[in-house]
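Researcher: Go.
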Amino acid sequence: MNTALAIELSGLCKSFRVRRARAVTRLSSVKDFISPISEHVIAVDHVSFAIQPGERVAFIGPNGAGKSTTLKVLSGILHPDAGTAQVLGLTPWRERQKLGFHIGTVFGQRSQLWYHLPARDTFELLGHVYELSPARLRERLKALTEAFELGPLLDKPVSQLSLGERMRAEVAASLLHRPRILFLDEPTIGLDVSAKATIRTLLERQSEQDGATLLLTSHDTGDMERVCQRVIVIHTGRVVWDGSIAELRRGYLGKKRVRLLSERPALSFALPGVRLVAEAAYRCELEVSVEVTPVGRVIAAALEQGALHDLTIEDPPLDEIIQAFYRKTSYRTVDPVPVPTPIRVAQ
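Model: Structure:
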């Protein structure tokens, strides 16, 4: 394994034993009622990738794809069944305590703040946990308080904070010891548009200032567009894409959004692959399938009906591109690494 890398995985596998209720019929025995069926579910299936120090990477996929399981293995919470993983040159599940001084975690649905106490109390506790001197803790807390605008919030019970305020405090708590790597699992879930924008800006700024590596999972494509430089897509436990956001757009972009402002109140288009998305007086928005009809032909058809006062051509939202990607690459994988050792299912 390359110790110069921030994160390196090779053939990582993780499965779970899951109990499911039996189908009950009129002929079922008492055992059928009380004894569920046990089966193995593969959550992570030969996942391999490497991340350079300072990279900001979005780790995305549908629900149940294996994102959170992979993060838990990388942070040392779970032990894999097979394969290898190194985080800052350390094996997470064997050197978890040592690794803990160099990583931070933010789980959007799990809080590390004491709910009924002020956030300041949690920060002071974490300062002791990470063995920060009182002077260093004060200096770091002052810097984070200014960056995250936490001044009015530090002495309020966490239970009285809004979700957006709490998430700012959560991220600040994870950055208290200047981690070299930050694992973020749905950090903006449930937040309003303004709060999401604030968290994204803070994450990007702090990563640039501290040189921290970010590995972020999210169902919100805005998170990856605003924060990350690279995308790793996982589906059914396997990596199906690894590249830049620009490469993802180029490879799976089959449509364009065209907005027209015309001198005529309404325009009509009888062209294949052209769909009217929105319409108002003198304005319309079209979705154009460029593989069927070139954008130039659409514009020519509009000009035949009258002069145009304005014209905008854009890519569709990234979430539409992601959905198209899933439809085209449901089960294609990127260089799976064979692991000779049979998978040992966790008991």
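Model: The first strand starts at residue 7 and ends at 20.
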